[in-house]
Amino acid sequence: MSDDYYSLDKANTDPKRIKLEREKARKLRKTSWWNEKIQKGICHYCEQKFKPTDLTMDHLVPLARGGQSVKNNLVPACKECNAKKKLHTPVDLLFQQLEKEKGSSER
Fold first, then answer.
1. Which residue segments constitute the domains of the chain, with CATH numbers given?
2. CB 58 within 8 A of CB 90
């Protein structure tokens, strides 16, 4: 994953847009909706249980790739999964998994 290259749209990476979306995320982090999400203590990616304070807010579609800070694009993630994900989307991760499976079945 570390060798991936992304051609990012300048409109998506505009610092003003990123700042606005991060502010929206900060506001959502203070809502009862988010509190309910993290109280379950489950990482969206690895599905392991964590203390709510150990979960971070992750954008499924990263801001730099056009994602927004809206409820259907935000999930709780453990710090390790969030760091590994970087600028990937769930589709990117699914394709990577399929490639791994394809490669191991061809051997």
1. 15-105 (1.10.30.50)
2. no
